[in-house]
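Customer escalation, tier 2.

The customer says the design service returned an amino acid string that "doesn't look like it belongs to this structure." They asked us to rerun it and document both sides in this ticket. The original structure tokens are below, unchanged.
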């Protein structure tokens, strides 16, 4: 429901009070005992008390002279005019029914030189059928999807099998996403000759539809000090038994070079119960960086550290997820089925994405590759 005017908001007063008292709204799932985050949406006690007192007083309109100016919503790009706009080569025809495998579209950039990206905004062409979308950078040396042709979608597990470490996640869209803006001096890199790969998850809604998603890019105005790269820490080998209410799945990554952790994002599907990120410097015990005790598939938030964490070679990033495949999970598609990794929401995923900052001249692949010992 819209809440842009008093007249629209007043009928929902009691529900609003209940939502803020129970901390259901605004959505924020990080355990306050662990970590501090720059984008923390939690309302202060004073704000909650103010809203509750307004409702208890009968939700009066107040003095119209004290009202702020009406909010003006942007109708075009939220990032202003992009330096370049890239889009799917053609409209994709979304069927009215049935399961739709992930669709991959090759989008040549035509960049003859390296480009540093400061801001990106991924805009679905038809939000009614775009479940989510991700855009990857495919550098010239990557063999991923080389059999695919521009203008023709590639789908299925074979299309995803070649996705490796060198293909950078440029941006992603889920409902409620905001443009990805990097701090001054930071940028993501699209190397010369790279293509973009639009990975699209469509959901049929009973009516035939079309979509042509696009991405707007703003380039950095000066060479950056740091390159931002998204690490994906995943476990694809799990099998969740039927009826299990607390099934644990773990994954970890040991860094081979220096990096600063900027942001964290847990990803699971409808059986996701909780998620935890831990870090441990070489030779040290792990400490909790982010704990999400009640994961909510409807609100896939990214958590930006208030103080980015510096890690060195040998540091370990650990992810622990728990899944509820029992009848007590009201979102569970079928508690009688065992569950494995899969793209669709009734299947599962276990991925911890970690945005890290490295020196602009360093290859993020050095985070994965052990350094060679220098010859005597």
């Amino acid at each position: 429901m819209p809440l842009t005017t008093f007249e629209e908001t007043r009928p929902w007063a009691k529900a609003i009070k209940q939502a803020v008292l129970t901390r259901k709204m605004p959505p924020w799932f990080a355990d306050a005992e662990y970590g501090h985050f720059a984008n923390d949406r939690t309302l202060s006690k004073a704000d909650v008390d103010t809203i509750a007192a307004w409702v208890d007083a009968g939700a009066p309109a107040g003095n119209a002279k004290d009202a702020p100016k009406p909010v003006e919503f942007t109708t075009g790009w939220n990032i202003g005019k992009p330096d370049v706009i890239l889009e799917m080569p053609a409209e994709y025809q979304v069927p009215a029914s049935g399961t739709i495998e992930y669709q991959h579209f090759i989008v040549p950039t035509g960049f003859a030189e390296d480009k540093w990206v400061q801001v990106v905004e991924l805009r679905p062409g038809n939000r009614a059928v775009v479940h989510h979308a991700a855009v990857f950078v495919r550098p010239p040396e990557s063999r991923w999807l080389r059999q695919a042709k521009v203008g023709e979608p590639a789908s299925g597990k074979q299309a995803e099998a070649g996705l490796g470490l060198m293909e950078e996640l440029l941006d992603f869209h889920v409902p409620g996403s905001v443009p990805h803006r990097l701090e001054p001096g930071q940028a993501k890199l699209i190397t010369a000759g790279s293509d973009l790969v639009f990975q699209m998850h469509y959901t049929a809604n009973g009516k035939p539809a079309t979509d042509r998603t696009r991405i707007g890019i703003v380039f950095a105005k000066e060479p950056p000090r740091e390159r931002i790269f998204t690490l994906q820490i995943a476990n694809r080998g799990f099998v969740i038994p039927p009826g299990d209410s607390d099934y644990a799945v773990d994954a970890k990554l040991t860094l081979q070079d220096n990096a600063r952790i900027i942001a964290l994002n847990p990803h699971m599907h409808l059986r996701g119960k909780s998620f935890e990120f831990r870090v441990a410097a070489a030779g040290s015990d792990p400490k909790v960086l982010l704990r999400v005790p009640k994961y909510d598939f409807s609100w896939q938030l990214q958590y930006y550290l208030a103080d980015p964490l510096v890690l060195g070679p040998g540091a370990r990033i650990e992810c622990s997820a728990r899944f509820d495949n029992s009848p007590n999970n009201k979102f569970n598609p079928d508690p009688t089925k065992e569950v494995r990794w899969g793209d669709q929401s009734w299947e599962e995923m276990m991925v911890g994405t970690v945005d890290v900052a490295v020196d602009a001249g360093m290859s993020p692949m050095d985070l994965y590759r052990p350094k060679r010992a220098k010859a005597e």
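Tier 2 assessment: The sequence is consistent with the input. The chain has three domains: 6-66, 84-224, 229-367. The mean pLDDT is 93. Sent an explanation to the customer and offered a walkthrough call.
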